[in-house]
Amino acid sequence: SGVLWLHTPEGERLYPSLFESGSAGQGGLMLGTTGPAFLYGADGMVRISTDGGRNWIPSDLQLDDTEIFSHARSEDFLFLGGSGRYTGQFQFSGLETLYNKSGAPVGQKAIFERGPQTHYSRVAIWFLQLLFYLQALLLVWLVLAVLYRALPNKDVSWKSAFGGSLFSALCVVGFFLIFRLIVGRSTTTAALYGVYVAIPLGMVVLLSTVQILLFGLEITYLLQNPRKIRPSEYLRNPRRFFELLS
Q1: pTM attached to this predicted model
Q2: What is the 3-state secondary structure of 24-87?
């Protein structure tokens, strides 16, 4: 924080007429041999220089309620780390605009991407994601198979139960996978996981509600038509239930 100036190769001292008041965070000046220079204050103000520090252009970036504690630069990229959620990686574009990785203008207060936080390769990440969805598919498949096997009005074989439940499981898990792939190409990570949780969770709740209603209607129908109810000895003897599933 304080008055800044620049020494030129000709021995001239230039004063950009900038003054930054102090705060709990840090201010910083990043001036390299190539690419733009960045000046930021502890209060979140950022200015850009494209002529080696002689002129500083006000940026539209104002990080309110943010204390910056670390910084780094690489070519046309500026990296800021601080206490607020509007810090991250910025890319210089044009004369007065910093863009985050996803391309949303900083002035729109987008939540910035932080980049991949893993040491795994792309192939390993793809394999782990595939393994996760396969595990989810297996779990949903088995749960639905047991439910279909235990239908009260029909003696369903394991083969039929697994066949029908496989279709349902592929639809449910496939929806999550396709939804993530499509939405992930057009939004930030924060927005993705907000929508990724909200919409599919709502769909699951709706699906579960419909299944519960249909199961209740089936019970009502069976009470109206007792002849179609399967033998219910397993209700009086728990061992009969496991024999029924075998």
Answers
A1: 0.40
A2: CCCCEEECCCCCCEEEECCCCEEEEECCCCCCCEEEEEECCCCCEEEEEEECCEEEEEECCCCC
